[in-house]
Amino acid sequence: MKLRIDARHIPVFASGAVLVLLYVAGCIAFRDRGFTELSVVTDLFRDENAVLGIAGIGMTFVILSGGIDLSVGAVVALTSVLIATLTFDRSLDPRVVGTVSEWLPHGLHPLAAIAIALAFGAVFGTGMGCLIHFFQLPPFLVTLGGMFFARGLAFMVKSESLSIKHPFYRQTVQKVLKVSLTDQVDLPLTAFCFVVLFVVGLYLARFRRFGRYVYAIGGDEKSAVLMGLPVGRTKVLLYTFAGFCSAAAGVVYTFAVSKGDPLNAGMGLELDAIAVTVIGGTLLSGGVGFLAGTLMGVLIFGLIQTLIITQGNLSAWWTRITVGALVLVFILLQNFVSAASRKTAERQRAAAHAANET
Amino acid sequence: MSGTANPERLRRQWVSKLLWPVVALALLAGYNLVATEGFFGLRWLDGHLYGPSIDVLKNGSLVMLLSLGMTLVIATGGVDLSVGALMALSGAVAAGLIEQGSMSLGVLLAVALAVCVLAGAWNGLLVAVFRVQPLVATLVLMVAGRGVAMLITEGRRITIRRIYEAYDQFVFIGNGFLFYLPVAVTIVAAMLLATVLLTRKTALGMFIEAVGDNDTASRYSGVNARVVKFAAYTFSGLCAGIAGLIYASNIRTADASKAGMFLELDAIMAVVIGGTALTGGRFYLLGSIAGALLIQMLTTTMLMHGISSDEALVPKALVVVAVCLLQSAEFRRRVAALSLPIRRVAGRRSAP
To answer: A152 at the B interface (CB within 8 A)?
Structure first.
C-alpha cells in the first residue's frame, strides 16, 4: 500500500524532523560536552520550558479556534505575585509591608493560595471570553486589555519581587515531589505539571466534543453556528481553559523560581507561546493544528536554547533570531501546504465534475 | 457600512469618528484642569516652553509616530507587531555607528532609517507577495528584530557620550527645541502633515481603504493591492525607525532590550481608539493621533497623582475595553435594546 500523508500533517512531521535533526546535530557536535546525557532531554521538560509549554497548551486551543491570547505572560506574573503575597508569613520578615499580610498575618497554605490563583485565572479567562463572544470584540484587543489589566494588577498587589519562603515550597516542592531517574537526573514537579496538563489538553482536543467544537469554530465560525454547535459556550469555555492554563503556568513558575515577580515573570511569554504554536504547525487562521505539534515546538525552543548555551560563544540573543527564522520557515511551509491542498481539492472537484458529465 | 460613495456622508463619518477620542481627550483635560494642579501650567525657560502638557506631547510623540504607520497598515487589513523591535534596531544601528565615528550624522541617520525601511519592506514582502497572515509575518521580526539589535550592540547598552563627534547634533533630536516646541513634536507634526497630504490629497488613501475593505474587489477594479500593502508596511518601518532614533537620542542610550518594548501594543491601541477598525477599511489619521495623546495624557495624569506607571496599566486596560465596547455594533445594539422599553414607557406617558 502506498503511504499517504494528509497535507495537514506535513507541518507537524516537519517540526518533528527539525526536532530530531537539532538533537542529532547537537549530539554529534557537542558529544564531548555532555550533550548526549539524559539531563539534556529532561531539562527540556522542566522549569522555564514547562512554563512555556503549559502556556503553549492554552494558546494552541485559542489559536485553533481562530483567536489569540496576549494576556498569558501578564497572568503568569499576576498569579505568581498572588501566590507569593497570599502565602507570605509576616512573622518571618516584618520589614515587608503593603501586602495582604495585614489581615492574614501568617499567610495561607500554598495549596490554598494555588487554588485561589488557578480559580482567578479561570475567571479572568471567562471574563475575556464573555467580552469576545457577547460583544463580538476582536480577541486581539480584548486580550491586549487583559494583558495590561493583569500586569497592572500584579504591580498593585506587590510592586517588587517577593520570594516564597513557605516550607511547602522550600521542602516539599524542591526535595520531595520529584522522581529520580538516575543518581544525578531527576524529574521535578514542574515537569509533571507540564506532562499532566499536556495529557489533559490532548484528551480535550481529541476525545471530547469540546475539542471538535473548537476545531469547527476555527475552521469556519458561521458554519459552526449553522450546524447548531454551541459556539458561544465553547468560545467562553475555551478562554476559561486558556486562562486556567496561564494561571497554571504561573503556579509552575513559582515552583521553578520560588518567588512572585510582577516585572520579570512571564515577560514576553505570550509571544514565545505563539511562536512555539506556529513552529508546531498550527495555522494562525485557526482550524488546523495539533497539540503534539506544540509540544514539539516547545522542545525545539528549549533545544535551541540548550544548543546555544552549550556552544558557549554565541550570545543568548541568537535564540531569538533562530526562533524568528524558524517561525518564518514554518509559515512559508504552511503557506505552501495550504496552497497545495487547495490545488488538490480543486483537481478532485474537477475530476468529480468530469465524472458527472460522462 | 462604509459602502456608500456619497462624499457628504463620508465627511460626516470622518467627523463622527473623530468625536469620541476628542471627547475623551477633552474630558480628561477638563478633569486635569480642575483636579491636577499645574497641569496646564506653562513656563518659559531659555526661550522654550515647558510644562506637563508639553510633556504629554513630547512623551506621546513616539506612539504618535508609530500610530501613523500603524494606521495605514491596519487600514489595509493588517497589523504590524514589529514596530517596537524596529525602534530598538534603528537606535542600535545609529548608536553603533556613532560609536565607530566614521560617518557624519546625516549619513548615519540615513543608514539607520534605511535598515528600518528595509525591515518594513521585508514585512510587506511576506504579507503582500507570500500572503502570510500579517500577525505572523510581523511576529517574525518582532521576535528576531530585537535579537539582531542586541547583536549589533553586543548586548550592551551603548551610551552616547559627549566625546563622540556627533553627540550634540544627535542628542538635539530627542532633547532640543524647534519653533519653541520639542524637536520630537515638530517631527511628528511634519510626518502627520506629510501623511495626511499623501493619503488624502492623492488617490493613495482611497487605494488603501479599498484594499482593506475588500482585497479581491479592489484588485478587480484595478488597484494594485500588493504594491499598496507593501508600501504601507514599508512606511510603518520608516515611522518606527524615526521613533527609535528619537527614543535613543532622548535617553542618550541605545538600549536594545527595553527600547520600544510593548509600544507596538500602545500604537495599535491608539489606532483603535482613533476609530480605525482592526478589520481594515476606513482610516482616521487624526483619530490615531488623538488616541495616542489620550493614552499619554492618561499616563501623565496618573503619574502626577502619584500612581506609578506600572499600576497605570489597569486604567489603561479599562480604557481599551471601554473604547472597544463603544465601537462594537453588538454592544450598541444591546444597549439600544435595553433602553427601548424605557423609551417606550416614556413615549406612552408623553402621549395624550
So the answer is: yes
